[in-house]
Amino acid sequence: MNIQWYPGHMTKAKRMMQEDMKLIDIVIELLDARVPVSSRNPDIDTLANNKFRLVLLNKCDLADKKINSEWETFFKEKGIPVVAINARDGQGMKTITEKIQEACREKIERDRKRGILNRPIRAMIVGIPNVGKSTFINSYAKKACTKVGNKPGVTKGKQWIRINKNVELLDTPGILWPKFEDETVGEHLAFIGSINDEILQKVELACNLMDFLKREYPGTLSERYQVDEALASSEILGDIASNRGCLLKGNELDYEKAASILLDEFRNGKLGRISIEQPDREQV
Hints:
Elements: H1 9-20, E1 26-32, H2 42-47, E2 52-58, H3 65-77, E3 82-84, H4 96-103, H5 105-113, E4 121-126, H6 133-140, E5 159-162, E6 167-171, H7 183-192, H8 202-216, H9 220-225, H10 233-243, H11 255-267
Parallel strand pairs: 1-2, 1-4, 2-3, 4-6
Antiparallel strand pairs: 5-6
Helix pairs in contact: 8-11, 10-11
């Protein structure tokens, strides 16, 4: 399944981000903990090549706990500060400001030597669509965020948010990149809901997800849907449709609706904590 999705507004957003890079000290990259490789926009490495970096593995509560730890080790070994977070319930959020200051230690020291004290660190938050950026910002700012006026960057589509006396955050629109070189990247992003569902072949996508689950998380499907995992994934999808009452006129099975149920329940964590990507298997 070759999935590509790059709406026109993302080109404008990327240009805006490129322009704003000169205003900031650190790029905070929000990734989906279930697919840290596929949810990393390769354009960010180019755009932010001279900036400090911090990686946040969001939705860590939906990902395999052991594999979360492996990803944290992976990024630390690359010299990139990393925190596993669940922005929705605040897990890991208390350490963010400290991690930002650690990552920007060189800048803070340079400022101090120049006699510049207590200047807030300017951070840009970046991430692909549906990675939880708005939830993160609301959680980090404790919903008491205010625009910081009279500064470059306060324009429609982006805003400066004062988090505390130490950090100001520049929000940016979520962007993908023009072409997925590896078609599994598009598939993984489709699994987690970062690709517009309307362009997807949901039945094929659901069957591919089931193939993965049967291989890596055996028992998940049988426990949730009371199905026989020895069957082909297309047959299992039919059984899910039957068990969940997904029927068309004439009592035909509605495979499309069953596929939507499976994908939604995976995305919402109802199938358990599942990681699609692991460090030792990914070319990163």
